[in-house]
């Protein structure tokens, strides 16, 4: 069998390109950096949006990706371009996507059932679990320790004469919604701090560090009286607004929200209303229903909300971790063994 061709279709530092090239002698790795936008920061998958290819460069990029047996990302993370490549390249066998929630990008490509059967799609799920779990932990700690009040006191140089109490994570019941790699890592971190961790998942499966596990249709019961809720849901079939007004109202008064999954999974208008009324005490949001978050969103002005612009997953080592994951899957693919993070092309997660 001829060597399979892996085409790297994203900006990538030379050290990681060389790591891919040396991974297995059965593949040839092609990367042409002049066709890629410059990275603005480490692990910048899209690159500088002001970069414009010449017509000749665009034609060369199309020729390159259309020659691939395996694609390491796809140009500009554009689902329409993904669809074009799949249809233009009948030899394409596998596409690896940089995002943990890459299933939504596959869904947006509107591929036929035959195309979805022909090409394997994998995601980078798990690579970002540690950084996102840390953000969720930061959010719950910030809410428990009343960060907005501390900041307000500092701004007006106020030292209160009365001693005030603060919440403790070890006294909390924390509901983690979504038991993928991110949700499992969140459960582990909160359990290590002594919290009682409740899990919610599409199906019941053993999850370390989770004391009780509920199915998605039991989410209101799971949330009843909980002190904090973590959104670790992917954008998939059945997850839109799963964290509904009813779920949010079931939480204990003053409960904390940390959202590190997908913004469309929370009924955002209800969350804003409950944050305004005080039923929800604090929210740390890395994602929003509409991104970028519109300038007129009330979330910007709520004092009990911290906003991260969908950057909590980023780390300097992200590209390194994704390369290692891809190489592990490459060996499995070549040896006919099960691969990690294969997209479910019915539910798209």
Could you give the topology of this structure?
Blueprint: E1 4-8, H1 14-21, E2 27-30, H2 55-65, E3 70-72, H3 79-88, E4 94-96, H4 103-108, H5 113-118, E5 120-122, H6 129-144, H7 147-155, E6 173-177, H8 181-192, E7 196-201, E8 212-215, H9 219-223, E9 228-231, H10 245-250, E10 255-259, H11 268-277, E11 280-285, E12 305-307, H12 318-335
Parallel strand pairs: 1-2, 1-3, 3-4, 4-5, 6-7, 6-9, 7-8, 9-10, 10-11, 11-12
Helix pairs in contact: 6-8
Give a written overview of the molecule.
- This protein has 349 residues and is of the alpha/beta class.
- The chain folds into two domains: 144 residues, 3-Layer(aba) Sandwich (Rossmann fold); 179 residues, Rossmann fold.
- Helix content is 34%, strand content 15%.
- The strands form two sheets. The protein has a seven-stranded parallel β-sheet with strand order 8-7-6-9-10-11-12. A five-stranded parallel β-sheet has the order 2-1-3-4-5.
- Helix 3 links the parallel strand 3 and strand 4.
- The two termini are 32 Å apart.
- The mean pLDDT is 96.
